[in-house]
Amino acid sequence: MPALLKPHAVRIGATLGIAAPGGAVDSDLLQAGVALLEGCGFRIRMRDDVHARHRYLAGDDARRAGELAELVADPKVEAILVARGGYGCDRIIPRLDAAAFRAARKPLVGYSDVTALLLWQRRCAGLVGFHGPMLERGADVDPAVLDALIGALAGAPAAPLRGTPRSGGAATGRLVGGSLTLVAASIGTSWEIDTRGAILLLEDRFERPYRIDRMLQQLRGAGKLEPLVAVGLGDFSSCVDERYPGLDAEQLVAEEIAPLGIPLVTGLPFGHVKENHPWPMGCRAKLDGDRGELRILERGVSVAP
Fold it and tell me: Is the separation of the CB atoms in 107 and 7 below 8 Å?
């Protein structure tokens, strides 16, 4: 794995590139999100065919991979924000050039299906990326989340994220994770998640508890849980099954993590919710299981002196 490198900081007035590397985008929501970013003082660059559709994808693999590669190579684009998740990011990874991503050092922001790109970028390019909000909400963005994203891109210190204490103690490690579905799907790939000494942050949407259980068993069987120092959960509120009303994803995770004796915090404000606060994958943080707090200890970008 390459030595970890941080992307360059980005300030208001910069040009942001918009990519659609996964699912087909909603044009109205995309335009509303673009208008919101422009209203904050950013300039926007995106291809005319960002609205393309191929089955359930934002165009075929060549279009989506080419779009991302162009934004990486474009000297005027300082950061890349993803339009939406859905599905399809893992399909284009074989077409991407890790060395080009590392050389460009541009912040990449997204979550959900973009977890695959963030894991690939960390493992194969050695570059920090941001698990954070996309343009899929249009203008319906939590102002605090927008401020946090702008601050994170500029290199401002991050405010602590607060959740619910589930297992006590405190631990420091590098942040890794994202969508549990995509984390589990990374096993056996060139972008397989590395959990050694890590704080694992997970979230997911509309996965029934038995599927959550199955993915946890996959991670356990692959040896990905034992090396962890702590676990933090974002939103899993939609991961329920009416046949088993007393069972939820947080309970399953707590049961699986308990034998490890490490801190666990649930209900952190990130994931498929409006309060989807950004966090830098690969950077050091401290998870306090007694206070229910995640404190990010370093910037996710490199700030010029």
Answer: yes
